[in-house]
User: Fold Hypoxanthine-guanine phosphoribosyltransferase from Methylomonas aurea.
Amino acid sequence: MNRLLEEIRLVEQQALLLHSEAEVEAALDRMAERINRTLADSDLLVLCVINGGIIAAGKLLPRLDFPLTVDSIHASRYRNATSGSDIHWLYKPTTSLAGRSVLIVDDILDEGHTLQAIVDYCLAQGARQALTAVLFDKQLGREKPVKPDFVGLSVANHYLFGYGMDYKGYLRNAPGVYACKEVL
Ligand SMILES: O=P(O)(O)OC[C@H]1O[C@H](OP(=O)(O)OP(=O)(O)O)[C@H](O)[C@@H]1O
Ligand code: HPA
Assistant:
């Protein structure tokens, strides 16, 4: 096995489960209920922030019970590292955002720079409103540049993986929220 895969296996073995699959699924139900109540008549465009937001969006969408369209955006700040740097714009939506109500869906709000940049981008493209939904909001104990409109769970300030969140590109598929031991 190569060195990176060995590290991934070790991180996975030593990680601490913070939120079970059942907890996250219940949080998704609650989030969807709030979105259904608020945005049913908005001709919504859901913007999935890939890669991390794939699972959040994929699990949220079938819970939404009104007509909507979907596109994606890829702004990456961590790029397989465990600390963020500059934002790299890797994919921009092909749908016109002009005049649209947009709901940006991501896995985690950490320092908030990525989501803030995506909100700014949507508004600059002429979106009527750019709302935000994050499955996890990390408790940093300080103000963030953006306050999400819809939040699934508030999570502890550790480096996390699972439900879309990666460790060095891996472990996004873990069925729960796990804290890496290195940063515990
Ligand atoms: O609130 P912030 O501190 O800006 O961090 C949050 C962002 O970081 C992760 O993306 P990442 O940059 O790792 O790209 P990825 O989705 O391709 O993994 C995550 O999916 C969020 O988009
Ligand atoms: O804790 C995290 N885990 C994975 N990806 C992330 N992107 C920002 N914070 C995190």
Summary: The beta strands are 16-19, 44-49, 68-76, 88-91, 101-109, 129-138, 150-155, 160-161, 177-179. The chain has one domain: 21-157. The pocket of PRP (ligand 1) is lined by residues 49, 51-52, 76-78, 84, 106-115, 166 (CB under 6 Å).
